[in-house]
Amino acid sequence: MNRVDPAFARVDPKRAGFYVWRIENLQVVPIAKEFYGEFFRGDSYIVLSIKDVKGLDSHVHFWLGNDTSQDEAGVAAYKSVELDDLLGGSPVEHREVEGHESRRFLGYFPQGIKIKAGGVKSGFHHVDKGVFQPRLIHVKGRRNPRFSECSSISWEEMNKGDCFILDLGHLIFPWLGSQCNVTEKMKTLEHCRKLRDERGGKSTIVFVEDGQEDKMDNDPLQMFEKHLPLKDRSALKNAAEGGQDEASERQMAANIKLFSCREEDGTLRIQEVKPGPLSRKDLLTDPQQRWSEDSFIIDNHPSGAWLWIGRKASHKEKKEAMRNAVGFLKKKGYPSDTKVTRVVEGAEPADFKCLFRDWPQPPPPGRVYTRSRIAKTVQTKFDAATLHSNASLAAETQMVDDGSGKVEIWRVENFQLVPLENIHYGEFYGGDCYVILYTYNIHGRDQYIIYYWLGSKSTQDEQGTAALMTVKMDDEYGGAPVQVRVVQYKEPPHFMSMFGGKMVIFEGGKAGWASKGEKDSGPGDKYMLQVRGTSALNCKAVQVPLRASSLNSNDVFVIFTKTAVYSWAGKGCTGDEREMAKNIAARSPRQLTNVFEGQEKPDFWNVLGGKEEYASGKMLQEEGSHPPRLFQLSNATGNIDVEEIHDFVQADLIEDDIMILDAWECVYIWQGKGSNKIEREQSQRCAIEYLKTDPSGRDPDTPIYSIKQGLEPPSFTGFFGVWDRDLWSKGMTFEELKKQIGEGNLPIAQVKENVTNGTQDFNEVTKFSLQELQVLVEELPSGVDPSAREIHLREDEFQRVFNMSYQAFNKLPQWKQKQLKKTNKLF
Where does the record place the HP domain (predicted)? Predict the structure, then answer.
């Protein structure tokens, strides 16, 4: 058996998880969760995503910064293959290049990725905690923007089509290009607020509109001009020079080509087989068309290239597949950033299958590579002991333990925290906000997490109070807790695990009842819950309207009445989901009645007020041969640009856009209220063009339905799981967000001296003893950056250890600082 890299030893191929590693000195090193989404352009990274989507769906990405070395890039590629082997050969493997990341990769980081200057070779592990270096951050992207540090602070780096952040430490200038999109504006402001929060609220944010720079007050204008003189503003580029946000153009089926990769006499040969449209049979070299002994390259330039590995391909073909594909791109003269994705026979993702007109056919007989399936029983017990003994594993898996620690919950009422009775733990109301203190023990020492949960229909006052009370509670515990902001429907795994598979989200809330003069009456005598989840670690139930139209063939629903409890199982649900429904039904002492779709009796329909149309049909009931796909359409480039949204939910339907839901048997055009007139008028033509340009050779006469935001039928909403009719009415506008962020600012005069210094307060971070900091990385106290341990020393101990003050140490050259840290075992 091949030796597994120690960095991968904790990956469980049978459990969902998300992991990030960086290549440091040609070794694979795990990245702590708090730094997920941050990439240094001088480095290479490996990212693994294993998702539970009615079976485990695995993707391995190796990301190459523009300044990474060939050695580091080679290690990332080689170790990705090793990780792939560990997972049984089934993951899809992606090559990602800085600035040209795939939509799937960007989708892992909803707040956008942060690309920073430097890397391991240059000594940049993370931003130096002692001295703040001013920087200019470029914000670009329509859905999941990239946050990239510019090589210099100058107008030449900037353009009118994007947003930029001039970060001076205690003063932050978000500069908004006159032609940037709404997403870039919102994400820019959110990122600025996050930077301010990370600095304890001691930074001030000054908004700068393109062309309105001279309208700032005198003090911030002087600081802004020190780095970006207005006299040099003529170097600012127009939007076109800044590049398009979306550059993935769909190609006509005839442009796609198939190439075979075959080993002959020890030499790998690549030969063109045929142009598109393609059939799955083109890949099967066995005379009976059961499997393939070869590998193939599907050239879909400029959208990228796919590398398909046959089940019986030689070991050399498998091992050197990605290197050969990159060589193929070079020979073709394609750009070095062209996307390359590797898949194996029997584990092809939906976006690969859609390149073929007749995919899929029945799977080949015999043993093939398959994605691991979760057994149709409750999963095995979570191994919490392993997490307690390995802090880095807890960071990687996003689970500090199995959720069995001490839980205390408060609800926000009238700007105060009111304790929740224990019997109501796990019950949340969408109109309220909650603060949860979680206490667990590691090596005899208590650790804390403070979650603040924000209901989707809670007020801004309630959300603000929850955040403030979280900070106050953090202070009461000496800054030791980890703070986690949790938004309804986006609960992380550990949050759900605290309630043992019995988390429930009800409609309504305390504030709403009080405004009507009503008491806290709970969900009432009759209500229905939609159950989502496959284990006690990821299960939650959400209240939906008690009527037949709320049902969905994909899920399980539990209906409570005064006299009975029903569990309704759709044809597309799993055994795990039915088991979790039993846990939820245990809320009532009444006997559970199981009802299966298609076998309902009249008394069941009477409880729901009679039969109605609901989200049903072949695509919803079965693991269809063609899973639904969601696309965002744009005509920004003058051509039809299509961006696929993976693992989509309702929130991925953007109000400013036209979206296409491809259900294979039909296509839906969803028109957002903010989409422009031209896009709406051309949406029908766009859908037809989409069908014509589908490489799988679709029937152009496939039915096309046009629907408007807010008027969606159940045949459409059923593809999105839980559907909230009020989702979009609660969104905050750009101006409202801008106002809210501005209200949290300190006066300019209060921060002016700190900005001039450019230094951070040495006393702002939590302090520890020298012994607590001279330990292995995984044993460091929570919140300590391994590359800046020294700033966590108490001032007197810092003087004793380094024989100088922190300020004097800060003025030393980087090499001298590192030498002193190594001598004192703080590196």
Answer: 762-827
